[in-house]
Design brief:
By secondary structure, the chain is an alpha/beta fold. It has one domain (53-194): Rossmann fold (3-Layer(aba) Sandwich), CATH 3.40.50. The protein contains 5 helices and 11 strands. Strands 2-1-3-10-9-4-7-6-5 form a 9-stranded mixed sheet. Strands 8-11 form a two-stranded antiparallel sheet. Helix 2 packs across helix 3 (87-98). The longest helix is centred in the N-terminal third of the chain and has 14 residues, at 57-70. The termini are far apart.
Length: 197
């Protein structure tokens, strides 16, 4: 991916700028957001919601690459958006950013794909075919509490199916804009909460 494709428009509290996705994810001083893998981890990553305009699938993929390179083990990503909004493309980028060479496909029919070849594991869930009561029976907490599985990045497509939001979760809601671009709204949840849709 060339450097221009890595450029995207970021809106932070009314401030718009063309900057590198990776620079933004690793910003420390100008935006007041610590690097995610520094002390405090994801808990200090997003102090305010962030909107990123993604003009095409390549920039959605590049956002994923940047997340895969920057996020620490133990990160939980709640991916929301309509069919075709780019959730799987984003996870494919995360895999590339982690150094995973295996093709990444949405686990719609098998619910989970695990990838262990990268710098940290990637656990990719797709809850599209499940009802919230069925999701609760899966005990997904085992993947982010670090007790049963090695800590990694947990990416959950169709996170709307969860009955609650796990602690320290980064929600990425992908939508189309009126101009035909894609938009990623990122927000962070500090404490577990009931799911709000």
């Amino acid at each position: 991916m060339d450097q221009e494709a890595d450029q995207t428009t970021l809106s932070i509290a009314g401030y718009d700028a063309k900057v590198s996705v990776m620079e933004r994810l690793r910003a420390t001083v100008t935006d007041g957001l610590p690097i995610p893998n520094q002390e405090g981890g994801l808990a200090n990553f997003l102090s305010v919601p962030l909107t990123i305009l993604l003009p095409n699938a390549d920039t959605t993929h590049q956002l994923g690459v940047s997340l895969g390179q920057a996020l620490p083990a133990g990160s939980v990503l709640l991916l929301k958006g309509d069919l075709g909004s780019g959730k799987t493309t984003l996870v494919q980028g995360i895999g590339k950013g982690l150094g995973i060479n295996e093709p990444i496909a949405s686990p719609t029919f098998i619910l989970l794909n695990e990838y262990h070849e990268g710098r940290i594991p990637l656990y990719h869930f797709d809850l599209y075919r499940l009802e919230p009561s069925e999701v609760e029976a899966l005990y997904l907490e085992a993947y982010w509490d670090g007790q049963e599985y090695p800590p990694g990045i947990v990416a959950i497509e169709w996170a709307e199916r969860l009955s609650y939001v796990p602690p320290n979760a980064l929600t990425i809601h992908l939508t189309d804009t009126p101009s035909g671009e894609r938009q990623a709204d990122l927000s962070w949840t500090k404490e577990p909460t009931p799911h709000s849709g």
